[in-house]
Amino acid sequence: MPVDAARNLPPAPQTAEVDLLLTAQIAVAWAGEGHVGEEPRLGWWRSDLTSEFGGRDLFERLLPRTHRWAVLQAVREAARRTDAELRERASNPDGVTSLYSLGFDLDERAEERLLELKRAGAPPEVALPGLGAVIRDSWDPAGFAGWVQSHGKVEHKVEPLGRRVVGNPPPALGDLVRRLVAALYPLAPAYPLPHYRSGK
Q: What radius of gyration do the chain's Cα atoms show?
């Protein structure tokens, strides 16, 4: 690669930024579940993976050592699939950057980091301390809204595809994650797909 081209590449994300991404993806996925047992959450995806007698019970029996990570991986996958289905409606789905689709390299790095954390053996809330602000014993919609708002404010436009964040994606992963999370506010009845579109 020519030296000039290498200078124009965004910096490789630091581990802390990848952890911020995973925290955001898992927190949003957890909050976006529908009825979790008797507890209604946001209902952005149809899953009951984190309730005691839903997916959690199954994972505890199948994976006694890593079941907490497995549950969060599964609900993150439910969110990723919903995000992907919505992006497919775009004329150029590959040109849509969202919380669950940041480009091949970043998506792969997040997967690798998640596996690293899972293998290390620490509980999710220890490995990713930011999860404690969202994932609690009971659903707190005001608390989740406050967590979303803590990521700042961004200007966005509501379009048929979802909420398009105005401007270009920031080069730093941490800033990009914060803006995409911030665009979830105000909370909506359906997943609002905060996103950037190339060329917009």
A: 17
The string of pLDDT tens digits covering residues 140-177 is 999 999 999 999 999 999 999 999 999 999 999 999 99
What ranges in 32-66 are assigned the alpha helix state H? 55-62
CA distances from 92 to 116, 166, 177 (A): 32, 18, 21
147 Ramachandran zone, left/alpha/beta (phi>0; psi -120 to 50)? alpha
**Which pLDDT belongs to residue 3?**
41
Cα 192 from Cα 186, distance rounded (Å): 9
The distance in angstroms from the start CA to the end CA of the chain is 28
CA distance 33 to 21: 19
Nearest to 81 by CA among 122, 58, 49: 49
Domain ranges of the chain: 9-143
3-state secondary structure of 20: helix
What's the predicted TM-score (pTM) here?
0.87
Residue (of 71, 99, 74, 111) closest to 195 by Cα position:
99
Q: Which of 41-55, 93-107, 167-181 has the lowest mean pLDDT?
A: 41-55
8 Å CB contact between 35 and 43: yes
